[in-house]
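Cross-check.
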Amino acid sequence: MTGVPASATGGTGRPSSGSKLGTAAVNQASLWNIANILTMIRLLLVPGFVALMLVDGGYDPAWRAWAWAAFAVAMITDVFDGHLARSYNLVTDFGKIADPIADKAIMGAALICLSSLGDLPWWVTGVILGRELGITLLRFIVIRYGVIPASRGGKIKTLTQGTAVGMYILALTGPLATLRWWVMAAAVALTVVTGLDYVRQAVVLRRAGLAESRAAAQASAEAAEK
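Predicted model, tokenized:
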């Protein structure tokens, strides 16, 4: 079997002029895997989360609890979609682009809403979002030399950020309100430290890439002279 429908081969077993349409349909269908669907759900949760956060001025504990639930679902799908994509070979170009966008969108929406409501200082939002966007840009800049892998510190940072922001979304009082301040402080510290580590990795990766390129160019020049 060729895997191409008979309708796409004109019933003869040979690709016809319409085979490109059949191939395109197969490629398009491959986008609809469980990992990509979870990513799409996370993207759709962003406007819903913002709406729930801002109902009645953003200070109704019940609506804040619903907003927390939407945020929690988004964070959980973030864990599972990447794992499923890698484990079951479901990685697609759409997923590579949409997954980081969804991650930054839900976290950015939560931080901006919290700062707009006066629950979180704007400088905290600026530090976290600035780091996330900066590291994403840095990855694209050095991608010609290699990929900067996600570190254990980066994963701990993501977990701490999600926990801290989730605690701020809920209308907590008393000791829990004090505790969330310390969790957020830890999240900001991890954000800065892991960000600097990624910058260090990018510099090392770029230097190694440039050295390799120079060595290859020198080898080619020497081979041409012989």
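Residues 1-29 have pLDDT under 50 and may be disordered. The longest helix spans residues 175-225. Passed to J.P. for a second look.
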